[in-house]
Task: inverse folding
């Protein structure tokens, strides 16, 4: 219901704004004529050559009194603030609000944190007066009314206008729900953001453990002292290296400093790397996707992660075949119909639907993915690509070709349709760790925290790289508290603010850029609360999404949110100084982000059915299907890595020199040798069932 309220009210405001603009445009011709006439009168009035007694006669000679009265009436009738036309359109649509308002007020019971109390009181007042008649609402709580809504929510006698007040409360309610200042109990997505936060004796007992785990001091003053010293050192290091750093240019434009960071040059690919890439690709065996999944299960038993809903041991014959078919149906976006085979018991329609209902669910998909990631991390070749301590977060977008509250419009990415974004985490070893579905496109960078803390694989990345979209002060501060290094790619560093703690320090060429002071007193004052939030998140004691939404900056952020923002400014400046100073650091960020984008391209190849459109209506179904896609893509990556190891060993056995530096630049994302289209036979050759390997595409390898 809350998702529906958000979607309906957002759409209503959007429609009213467009209708108001159209109304405004239709009146512009009349308004222009009246305004031009009055402008002519004003020019006569301002003409200093005319004696004052002659002014009225000069005006009357050009404009009859009736024409002037008509122009004045037109201006009064048509000229108004742009918001007036929007509100008029809202009033004309109030009947639509009346359709769902009674059910909403009767059904939805809310509570609020202190910041949301004015909205809650106003909502509860609407609940009490629902069904009563009258154009005004006597005794309505007025604290909820913002300056923007005041002209419409209040009458001339300062009474609450029913229509304007209702719109004001609904508008403030949607905003408060998004920020979790108002919440629902019981609920998961819209729960009390404080629920689960450590407090009282529990926090006193956990504080030393949390500080040790996060490597943070107990006292806020000590934390500020450490940050001050680290920031001073970073400035000194970066400033000292500026003369030799030819990528950085600082100039003065219109009296203000302007920073320019030259883009990285493209890395050359030596002939040996190109040859190795082609040789390895040509050696990989050709295989159908069902056989790939079954072979990989034969070697790792990863499908055993899919347990029955009752958690009892499986007694179903050929369960692996049914599971592979279901995974392919979701991952390839083709559904069950192409996979059903009446002559094979494991592929009969009723059998597949039964297995889907009892075995394929969110927790089993996550467990299967964790097994894939663990198997890949143990391979020697994957260690050439990374240790698993680095990951990148990015989104892959899918069109949802019908109206649902769990998809949103964005013409840039979805054209005339609506869609979702699967925001996911990719390790430096190329495997996908976790992902969440975001309605529409990513606007909330705090989703990154949910993805990080929700991943359940054996890899625990400590450095997180993203595009500029997740670049926010709060994210820098929170990730640092949680023990992560946040390393976003900066698309335009020129307008970025650098912050300082010491107001008198001389930072050389960076002094003019570092004009903004950090309010460290806020950090010290709220240090214990910041630790409590980080500790509660680390221990999994609270719901991440609800808590984080309360920390987003709004028009009136709490002091705790401001303290986290001030902390984030220090951490962001430390990052920026290192980003300027170290070209290798910038290169690592770019490389890792490219790995995530390359993995998304493979996912698009697999997700080919139904024009690549996601046809699940609800968030849970969308997330389960995209998790299944992630499992299949990871299985391809691990299978490729296994056979790439054999291909490299074969090349070395034939006397070819294979450089370690070239191996490090390979990628397990080839798919030309894998058939994902239309041939779904779930049977392995007998040698493979006995543990043997598919032969490489050359002689002499068994």
Result:
């Amino acid at each position: 219901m809350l998702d529906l309220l958000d979607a309906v009210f957002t759409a209503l405001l959007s429609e009213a704004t467009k209708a108001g603009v159209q109304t405004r445009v239709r009146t512009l011709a009349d308004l222009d004529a009246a305004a031009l006439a009055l402008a002519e009168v004003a020019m006569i009035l301002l003409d200093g050559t005319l004696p004052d007694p002659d002014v009225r006669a000069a005006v009357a000679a050009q404009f009859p009194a009736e024409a002037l009265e008509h122009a004045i009436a037109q201006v009064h009738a048509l000229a108004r603030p742009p918001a007036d036309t929007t509100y008029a359109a809202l009033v004309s649509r109030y009947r639509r609000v009346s359709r769902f308002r009674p059910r909403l007020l009767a059904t939805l019971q809310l509570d609020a944190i202190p910041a949301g109390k004015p909205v809650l009181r106003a909502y509860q007042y609407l609940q009490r007066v629902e069904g009563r008649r009258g154009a005004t609402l006597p005794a309505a709580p007025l604290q909820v009314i913002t300056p923007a809504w005041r002209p419409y929510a209040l009458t001339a006698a300062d009474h609450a206008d029913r229509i304007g007040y209702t719109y004001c409360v609904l508008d403030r309610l949607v905003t408060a729900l998004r920020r979790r200042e108002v919440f629902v109990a019981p609920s998961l997505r819209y729960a009390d953001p404080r629920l689960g936060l450590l407090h009282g004796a529990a926090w006193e007992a956990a504080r030393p453990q949390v500080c040790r785990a996060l490597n943070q001091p107990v006292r806020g003053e000590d934390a500020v002292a450490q940050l001050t010293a680290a920031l001073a050192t970073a400035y000194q290091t970066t400033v000292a290296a500026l003369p030799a750093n030819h990528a950085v240019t600082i100039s003065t434009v219109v009296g203000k400093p302007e920073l320019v960071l030259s883009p990285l040059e493209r890395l050359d690919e030596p002939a040996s790397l190109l040859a190795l890439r082609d040789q390895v690709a040509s050696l990989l065996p050709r295989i159908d996707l069902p056989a790939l999944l079954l072979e990989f299960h034969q070697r790792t038993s990863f499908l055993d992660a899919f347990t029955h809903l009752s958690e009892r041991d499986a007694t179903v014959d050929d369960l692996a075949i049914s599971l592979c078919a279901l995974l392919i149906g979701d991952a390839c976006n083709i559904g069950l119909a192409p996979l059903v085979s009446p002559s094979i018991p494991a592929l009969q329609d009723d059998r597949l639907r039964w297995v889907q209902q009892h075995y394929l669910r969110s927790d089993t998909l996550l467990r299967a993915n964790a097994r894939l990631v663990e198997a890949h991390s143990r391979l020697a070749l994957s260690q050439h690509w990374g240790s698993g301590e680095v990951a990148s977060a990015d989104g892959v977008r899918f069109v949802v070709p019908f109206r649902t509250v769990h998809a949103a419009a964005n013409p840039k990415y979805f054209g005339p349709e609506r869609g979702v974004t699967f925001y996911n985490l990719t390790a430096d070893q190329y495997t996908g760790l976790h992902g969440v579905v975001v309605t529409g496109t990513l606007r909330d960078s705090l989703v990154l925290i949910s993805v990080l803390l929700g991943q359940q694989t054996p890899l625990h990345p400590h450095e997180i790289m993203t595009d500029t979209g997740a670049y926010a002060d709060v994210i820098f501060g929170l990730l640092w508290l949680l023990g992560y290094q946040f390393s976003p790619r900066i698309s335009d560093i020129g307008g970025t603010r650098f912050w300082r703690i010491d107001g008198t320090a001389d930072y050389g060429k960076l002094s003019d850029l570092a004009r903004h002071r950090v309010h460290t007193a806020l950090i010290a004052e709220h240090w214990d609360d910041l630790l409590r939030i980080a500790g509660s998140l680390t221990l999994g004691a609270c719901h991440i999404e609800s808590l984080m939404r309360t920390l987003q900056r709004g028009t009136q952020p709490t002091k705790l949110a401001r303290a986290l923002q001030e902390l984030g400014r220090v951490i962001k400046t430390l990052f920026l100084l290192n980003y300027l100073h170290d070209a290798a650091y910038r290169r690592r960020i770019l490389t890792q982000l490219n790995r995530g984008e390359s993995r998304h391209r493979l996912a698009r190849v697999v997700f080919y059915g139904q024009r690549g459109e996601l046809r699940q209506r609800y968030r849970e179904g969308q997330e389960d299907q995209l998790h299944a896609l992630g499992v299949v893509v990871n299985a391809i990556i691990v299978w490729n890595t296994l056979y790439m190891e054999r291909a490299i060993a074969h090349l070395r056995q034939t006397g070819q020199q294979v450089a370690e530096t070239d191996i490090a630049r390979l990628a397990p994302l080839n798919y030309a040798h894998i058939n994902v289209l239309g041939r779904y036979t779930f049977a392995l050759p007998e040698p493979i069932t006995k543990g043997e390997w598919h032969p490489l595409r050359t002689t002499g390898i068994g």
Summary: The chain has three domains: 2-183, 199-244+471-581, 271-369+606-689. Residues 2-183 form one domain. The first helix runs from residue 2 to 45. The chain is about 55% helix and 10% strand.
